[in-house]
Structure formats: structure tokens, C-alpha cells
Amino acid sequence: MTEKTHPGRLWRKAALVWVALSLALAATVVGAYLDIGAWKLPLAMAIAAFKAALVAAIFMELTGAGAGTRIAALVGLLWLALMLSLTFADETTRAQSSDGFTQGAE
């Protein structure tokens, strides 16, 4: 790292990210109280993805990172997508039991 950074610039960048994350937090809280039906979860997930992308781009410095770091971040995202898709597939294919938890307790 031959690049010299000024402490004032680092504080400014952190303050701007803090403001953006605070606004996203406010949007999350407002979205939780909106009566938008089935769009509540996609809205919350989109805001969460924005916050994660902001942290990854600014604090993890993925925009200026090398190829290895970018590939590692991409593999992490793909692993998360795989785990979420398997979780959703498992949840949607389970049979609904009217007995509750007594089905396998005999």
C-alpha cells in the first residue's frame, strides 16, 4: 500500500457511509410499518442488500480490490444464494401437518 491517505478523508468517507446506512435504517423502519402486503419482505431484502453492498464496496474496498478478493466475495455470495435457495425449497416442499408436532412422536 503505497497510497497515502489523509485522516480527514477517511473520517469524511466513514461519515457519509454512516449517513447512508442511517437513512437505509430509517427506510427499513418505515417499510416495516407500511401496509404493502406481500411487498414488505422484498422491500426489506432490497434495503438489506443495499446496506450490504455499501459496506462491501466502501469498508471492504471491493471496488479497488484484486481479482482474488473479488472472486472470494463472489463465491461467498453464491454460497449464500445456494443456502437460501435450499432453505426455501425445503420449506415449500414440506407437507403441512394438522397435528402439529405429534406426527413423529409416537
Structure overview:
Helix 1 (7-33) packs antiparallel against helix 2. This protein has 3 helices and no strands. The chain has 106 residues and is mainly alpha-helical. The model has no long low-confidence stretch (mean pLDDT 86). The termini are far apart. It has helices spanning 7-33, 40-58, 67-93.
List the quaternary state of the chains. single chain
Quickly give the structural class: mainly alpha
Distance between the termini: 65 Å
| Overall shape | flat
Stretches with pLDDT under 50, minimum 5 residues: none
Number of domains: 2
Index terms:
flat; 106 residues; membrane; mainly alpha; 2 domains; transmembrane; 3 helices; single chain; Caa3_sub_IV; Cyt_c_oxidase_su4_prok
Question: Could you provide a short overview of the structure?
Answer:
The protein has 106 residues and is mainly alpha-helical. It is built from three helices and no strands.
